[in-house]
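Structure (tokenized):
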């Protein structure tokens, strides 16, 4: 990502994805209080039934705002979904090291590290899921020491997190081998991102590259994996490069139909354009547990593919789908009218344009447009 884009992300962070609140969490596992930062999605209060993915950020005092900015920027362009963002305060260097403590011989969390692990798994996450409308898709992120720590959650047969963002990780003993073994063994879908840079610490560069070599050979459809090595970045600046890359990787299926997707995939199909659209949103629900109406622009992309390939019968199926998602609008009748018009059945087309005229406008479709098309069909019937 170019510097100007990074600055834009930070600018959006300053304007706020939503207001950040600070809660003091009393933890038996930690033996005291710990501040957590929470930002709820802008539309959280609009629909009491909607659930949102959760992103838990360690090192919350300095990672929270960059993640917040990237999420706001991506959501503004409808490339990223709204997310419940939570950060854990670790504002003292000795505190983050204590939270991530592990045994040098076994490579497993011990003492304060084990307590912090249990705090997240048995106290904080249950609280968040009980208090907020959390969707099943959950992400955890960390940087260097805490990035190494988040991998301990992979050691469970059914990890409480579905996605991991590991920024320049300091890996515990033998993690270069243990992480690939766990990624290969875990049955449920796992999303995993790690990054380093040519200006990163040499030990971290070596470990992450060794880990990458072993993970990228895993042949598994349920593993979504990405590794970045940034040129010209440092141990700290790589964070601003990594965050949007990780989020866009994980949420790629959420994004609207792009020009490349249209040209490289959709238009090349011989048939099944509407089925492609259905499957795109079914995959979104299945993989990320996000339910949402099909975007109007995605409807228009499929419309364009149907017209380009002259597969006019598919307008019938597209009209049924439009009625399901935008039943009060003129979209469904418009597609039926399009089918009849292009098949030169102008009488039926004229009736459907008139029917559309009586319904609610949507997007670029207006009542004037439907009336004019109806009159045009009359002329063609003569």
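Design, position by position:
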């Amino acid at each position: 990502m170019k510097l100007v884009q990074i600055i834009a992300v930070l600018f959006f962070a300053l304007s706020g994805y939503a207001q950040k609140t600070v809660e003091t969490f009393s933890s038996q596992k930690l033996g005291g209080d710990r501040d957590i930062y929470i930002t709820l999605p802008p539309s959280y209060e609009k629909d009491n039934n909607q659930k949102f993915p959760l992103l838990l950020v360690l090192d919350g005092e300095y990672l929270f705002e960059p993640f917040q900015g990237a999420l706001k920027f991506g959501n503004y362009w409808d490339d990223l979904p709204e997310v419940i963002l939570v950060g854990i305060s670790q504002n003292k260097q000795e505190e983050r090291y204590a939270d991530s403590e592990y045994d040098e011989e076994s490579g497993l969390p011990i003492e304060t590290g084990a307590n912090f692990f249990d705090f997240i798994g048995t106290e904080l996450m249950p609280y968040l899921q009980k208090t907020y409308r959390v969707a099943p898709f959950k992400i955890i992120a960390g940087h260097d020491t805490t990035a190494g720590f988040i991998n301990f959650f992979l050691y469970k047969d059914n990890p409480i997190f579905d996605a991991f963002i590991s920024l320049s990780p300091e890996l515990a003993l033998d993690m270069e081998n243990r992480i690939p073994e766990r990624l290969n063994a875990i049955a449920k879908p796992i999303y995993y991102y790690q990054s380093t840079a040519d200006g990163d610490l040499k030990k971290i560069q070596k470990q992450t590259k060794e880990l990458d070599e072993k993970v990228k050979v895993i042949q598994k459809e349920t593993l979504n994996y990405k590794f970045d090595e940034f040129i010209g970045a440092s141990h700290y600046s790589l964070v601003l490069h990594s965050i949007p890359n990780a989020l866009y990787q994980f949420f790629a299926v959420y994004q609207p139909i792009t020009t490349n997707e249209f040209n490289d995939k959709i238009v090349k199909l011989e048939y099944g354009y509407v089925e492609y659209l259905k499957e795109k949103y079914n995959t979104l629900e299945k993989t990320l547990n996000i339910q949402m109406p099909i975007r109007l622009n995605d409807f228009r992309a499929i419309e364009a593919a149907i017209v380009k390939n002259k597969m006019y019968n598919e307008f019938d199926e597209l009209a049924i789908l439009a009625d399901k998602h935008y039943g009060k609008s003129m979209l469904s009748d418009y597609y039926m009218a399009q089918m009849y018009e292009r098949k030169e059945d102008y009488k039926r087309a004229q009736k459907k344009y008139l029917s559309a005229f009586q319904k609610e406008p949507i997007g670029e479709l207006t009542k004037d447009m439907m009336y004019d098309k109806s009159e045009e069909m009359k002329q063609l019937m003569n």
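Reviewer-requested clarification: The chain has two domains: 3-254, 259-381. The chain is about 50% helix and 15% strand.
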